[in-house]
Write a structure and sequence with these properties.
Blueprint: H1 8-14, H2 17-27, H3 48-62, E1 69-73, H4 79-86, E2 90-95, H5 98-111, E3 119-123, E4 136-142, H6 151-161, E5 162-172, H7 181-190, H8 199-209, E6 213-217, H9 228-240, H10 249-262, E7 265-270, E8 289-299, E9 302-311, E10 327-334, E11 340-349, E12 360-367, E13 374-381, E14 385-386
Parallel strand pairs: 1-2, 1-4, 2-3, 4-5
Antiparallel strand pairs: 5-7, 6-7, 8-9, 9-12, 10-11, 10-13, 13-14
């Protein structure tokens, strides 16, 4: 006779939180500093594509950049936190399984000593995280919330920890996760929690905790492969106003979206409503500029430039030298045919105070430049974005050097 399915709500209620933590730690027994899980998200081989797609979507929604204070919640061996620390974030990794944190710390000491002070490990009981109020810019929860016995307490703790403008980003399974065969097997064999995630219920909880809004991401887990004729027909229809392909274009989009609707949920809880917080260049939205080249000419030392730069966007620019989000002129090196050689060739400061929307700055300077090379000019909010990304901004016409008559 088949066993009755395990009800995850009954499982959660049947034991105290400390027992759930003990079971999580027992489940992780045998993980040492050389365990295969340290190679995530590139293992197992059969799941690299979906793993990277989900992770990329999550990081895009997180809008995380160097200098951000980030919590990797339910970190396991902290493979995600390690990636973020290597990219310049200040990372705290936390998990209820203390043996995983110990293995992760040993792994770092052996293989990544350069991360000392950049990646810290802090144990948690799931509902309380020993960090100060407002001490984080981002919280990343990668497939961890569905293991938590007290989701409401965890969401409330996330809100306490987030600074103004902060966000918590989740990648979680969907509303039928607990009934999947793999989930039933894990709960039966190990007593661990494999809960369902209902984003509408999460939002009810998050509102009570003080979060201002929620966004749910729609993304493709796997590519929808088309033959060339169908792809071109779809492109002509969507981009050039051509006739609908067979099958209709909307069917292809449904096929891309269906795995997400059936399975994983990627969602973001925002600490603040739209338009609140610092409306400056620490955020990529609304960063626009007009660069006018008043003159560009060859001189003995290289190229002399005189520019008028206007803030045509909606955000103030942080001044040069002020850290993350400071706005500088980025000079890109091109060859004689205007092909990009070096995007990060040079920086030039443009202001030493806040530049408000509508304000125009003027700058004049000389930069050394090989005779056969050219320049592209764009603004860059450091550790945030290039203004014209993915373009090259302005490519000035450089007048030849004046030769004095003898």
């Amino acid at each position: 006779m088949a066993e009755a399915p395990i009800d995850v709500r009954t499982l959660i209620a049947s034991v105290p939180p400390e027992e759930h933590a003990r079971r999580a730690e027992a489940y992780a027994t045998g993980v040492d500093e050389t365990h295969w899980s340290f190679r995530k998200p590139f293992v197992p081989l059969s799941k690299i594509g979906p793993n990277l797609t989900r992770l990329g979507s999550m990081l895009e929604a997180a809008d995380v950049s160097a200098g951000h204070r980030v919590l990797d919640f339910g970190c396991g061996v902290a493979w995600l936190g390690r990636i973020l620390a290597q990219s310049g974030c200040e990372v705290v990794a936390t998990d209820v399984a203390g043996n995983l944190l110990e293995a992760a710390a040993r792994h770092d000491a052996r293989f990544h000593p350069e991360l000392a002070g950049k990646l810290r490990y802090v144990p948690t009981d799931g509902a309380q995280i020993p960090l100060p109020d407002g001490s984080l810019d981002r919280i990343l929860c990668h497939e961890a919330l569905h293991h938590v016995p007290d989701q409401e307490g965890t969401i409330a703790e996330f809100r306490r920890l987030l600074a103004p403008g902060g966000r918590a980003v989740f990648m979680e399974p969907g509303p039928d996760h607990s009934q999947a065969a793999s989930s039933q097997s894990e709960m039966r064999a190990h007593g661990v929690i494999e809960n369902d995630i209902h984003v509408e219920r999460i939002w009810e909880v998050a509102q009570r905790a003080g979060f201002a809004r929620i966004e749910v991401g729609l993304f493709a887990i796997r590519p929808q492969m088309l033959d060339l004729d169908r792809f071109l027909a779809l492109w002509q229809h969507e981009m050039r106003g051509g006739p609908p392909p067979e099958p209709p274009a909307s069917a292809t989009y449904r096929q891309l979206a269906r795995p997400v609707l059936q399975g994983f949920r990627m969602f973001v809880l925002h600490a603040d409503p739209p338009g609140s917080g610092l409306a400056d260049s620490t955020s990529p939205e609304g960063l626009l500029a007009r660069i006018e080249v008043l003159f560009a000419r060859r001189v003995e030392a290289g190229v002399e430039l005189k520019l008028a730069i206007t803030n045509t966007g909606t955000r103030s620019w942080r001044p040069s030298g002020s850290g993350r989000g400071e706005v500088n002129l980025g000079l890109m090196l091109l060859d004689g045919d205007a092909a990009l050689l070096n995007r990060n060739w040079r920086r030039h400061p443009i202001a030493h105070r806040i530049t408000a929307p509508g304000e125009t700055l003027r700058t004049r300077f000389t930069v050394p430049l090989p005779e056969e090379a050219r320049l592209a000019l764009d603004l860059v909010a450091e550790d945030v974005r290039w203004f014209s990304q993915p373009g090259l901004g302005v490519v000035p016409e450089i007048k030849p050097m004046r030769r004095q008559a003898r």
